[in-house]
Amino acid sequence: xxxxxxxxxxxxxxxxxxxxxxxxxxxxxxxxxxxxxxxxxxxxxxxxxxxxxxxxxxxxxxxxxxxxxxxxxxxxxxxxxxxxxxxxxxxxxxxxxxxxxxxxxxxxxxxxxxxxxxxxxxxxxxxxxxxxxxxxxxxxxxxxxxxxxxxxxxxxxxxxxxxxxxxxxxxxxxxxxxxxxxxxxxxxxxxxxxxxxxxxxxxxxxxxxxxxxxxxxxxxxxxxxxxxxxxxxxxxxxxxxxxxxxxxxxxxxxxxxxxxxxxxxxxxxxxxxxxxxxxx
Length: 280
Description:
Elements: H1 6-28, E1 36-39, E2 47-52, E3 73-78, E4 81-90, H2 91-94, H3 98-122, E5 131-134, H4 140-152, E6 159-163, H5 165-175, E7 203-205, E8 212-214, E9 220-222, E10 225-232, E11 236-251, E12 256-269, E13 275-279
Parallel strand pairs: 1-11, 5-13, 6-8
Antiparallel strand pairs: 2-3, 4-12, 6-10, 7-8, 9-10, 10-13, 11-12
């Protein structure tokens, strides 16, 4: 009769940890669905995200072919780099109860990867957006001014806002009227996300029609101020070769499992005029 023992249960370690990590990362990260994110084509080490320049529209004369207008693009090159953390876990710890003890390791590693990805993207906000609004305490006037700035620049929709929790608390207090907010926790936020990934993580409501999110990864300016973001989806671009993952290897001599949590990505501001930094 066959029996499962500690040796055969080793085969489950990688699967359990990796699946927990991926699930936790997807449930944690806020920014990926909000911006222009692309998986790199196979065999490519970098890619150029283009931005088309405006062309002039003029009168035409009936029966006369117009001259061709030169149309150019500029672009930003994204070259993903690897980020991650290596953790070694003793088998003595895990063998007490593999099914109970493995999941928390994967869950925590996945959350760390998701938060790091958000931090890398939000680090672009400070000093790099086309408009900066110094609000002091976050308020509805700053939000409405930011929206007007995006509209005046011709930024394409959808727009979104990402706030530090303390800034969001000030904004919610200043607006006051609960009727301007959508129900927090909606599965689908209009205009953001896709059929497989909805932009619901961190979603707290849509004042004045702008989906807003909170995360503690918003960059601190000091003195309690933070670089909150109001932007078009096309303001920031992100490319990744390897998505968030955890590789697990059996380290025989150390009587341990090696966990390598990592990802490979790069992000950049690709249309500064389509983003607003609200310092509050």
